[in-house]
Specification:
The chain is an alpha+beta fold. The protein is built from 16 helices and nine strands. It has helices at 28-36, 73-85, 97-100, 112-119, 139-148, 152-162, 166-174, 185-194, 197-201, 204-220, 236-248, 255-267, 273-283, 285-289, 337-356, 358-368, and strands spanning 41-48, 54-60, 66-67, 94-96, 136-138, 252-253, 297-307, 311-320, 325-332. The strands form three sheets. It has a five-stranded antiparallel sheet with strand order 2-1-9-8-7, sandwiched between helices. The protein has a two-stranded antiparallel ribbon with strand order 3-6. The protein has a two-stranded antiparallel sheet with strand order 4-5. The longest helix is centred in the last third of the chain and has 20 residues, at 337-356.
């Protein structure tokens, strides 16, 4: 079961400028998905007006709750920013790497945790764990890697410091209409392994409670963080259950909510100054890691994610030099395994093309059967 459930909440490709590998028709993988599975695609594209409100340019299934993968970390970041702004958390608080890794499940994050440690100059063993776990890092460094590398263990450590009520309070404060509560990622993965079919049948609130319980068990028991010594072949029934768990049990939200949230980050509306500065610092990672973005954008904020082969999400907020301020959120679920790689590779280019090119927009609308 464990080997069936090595799903990833991983980082989407870095946002680049003019360097994407292009297939003969880079739009076609997602256009084909739109034609054949329109109910599994949700999109919100909008212009951000000076007062922070959104002027929709394209909406498709925009209020439909969809699995979020690592996009959910935007809401965790907002909860963290609220706690820091309110003086409930100190971003300079030292955190032992060992405490951070108490939530690390090797082989489930696409190498995100090892990449975080590498950035800090901390060596790793073969499973991606730190060779110097006694070192400390500031709490805010974990917020950085929660977004920049999509480090699941960093996310869980921050959730543990926030407590169970912080995310629901943030959802209410931000007025997010379709957003579900969020629990530890280690708990979610652990429950897929441990509970399987029973977890699938549980209500969302019950699942999150189970995630908190399992996440705490993972933190306390190093044995629960060990990958299996052997990998058993998966039956067809086990694979089918794994796909259902992946698409139906993670926290869900809508593109309408995420576009609105990213629009607030862009406009500054609805956040206190300290919250806004923190949100922008961490969501603005593409400007740090790709300096060429500064040639095109005044500001660029991004966070996406993937979950196994079946779930893919991405959110962009762009302040374009000499152009408009725009937001774009796109969520896909139930992606066929044989088309997952092509869709993933083409997503970033698809978003930019359908944002800026009227011909590409028209092709998307035709694929969805929508007339202008």
């Amino acid at each position: 079961m464990k080997r069936l459930l090595t799903f990833l909440l991983s980082l989407t490709p870095l946002l680049t400028v003019g360097t994407l590998a292009q297939s003969p028709d880079p739009l076609e993988p997602i256009l084909t998905f739109a034609r054949t599975q329109p109910g599994d695609l949700a999109i919100s594209v909008a212009t951000v007006l000076p007062d922070g409100t959104l002027k929709p340019a394209l909406r498709w299934n925009d209020t439909q709750a969809m699995p979020l993968a690592s996009s959910m970390k935007v809401v965790v970041l907002a909860a963290y920013a609220r706690a820091v702004s309110a003086g409930k958390l100190n971003p300079d608080t030292p955190v032992k790497v060992a405490d951070w890794e108490a939530y690390y499940l090797p082989g489930t994050d696409g190498g995100a945790h090892a990449e975080s440690l590498k950035t800090l100059g901390i060596g790793t063993d073969q499973q991606g764990r730190a060779t110097t776990p006694e070192k400390t890092v500031p709490l805010d460094t974990l917020a950085r890697f929660m977004i920049e590398t999509s480090d699941n263990a960093a996310t869980d450590l921050i959730l543990s410091r926030l407590g169970k009520e912080a995310v629901p309070a943030t959802i209410r404060a931000l007025g997010l209409k379709q957003q579900e509560d969020i629990g530890p990622v280690s708990g979610l993965f652990g429950n897929w392994d441990k509970a399987g079919a029973a977890y699938l049948k549980a209500a969302p609130a019950q699942r999150r409670a189970l995630d908190w319980q399992r996440g705490e068990a993972v933190r306390r028991d190093p044995a629960l963080r060990q990958p299996p010594a052997t990998e058993a072949p998966a039956s067809d029934a086990a694979i089918a259950l794994a796909v259902q768990l992946q698409n139906q049990t993670p926290p869900r939200g809508s593109t309408a909510d995420y576009a609105a949230l990213m629009g607030r980050v862009l406009s500054g509306e609805g956040f206190h100054a300290a919250e806004l500065a923190l949100m922008r610092r961490h969501l603005g990672w593409p400007m740090r890691v790709n300096l060429a973005n500064a040639q095109v954008y005044n500001a660029l904020y991004a966070k996406g994610g993937s979950l196994g082969a079946g779930v893919l999400t991405n959110n962009l907020a762009l302040d374009i030099k000499g152009g408009p301020r725009v937001v774009y959120s796109i969520f896909l679920r139930n992606i066929p395994e044989n088309s997952s790689a092509a869709i993933t590779q083409s997503l970033e280019g698809f978003m930019l093309d359908t944002l800026f090119q009227s011909a590409a927009q028209q092709r998307l609308l035709q694929a969805l059967g929508v007339g202008r």
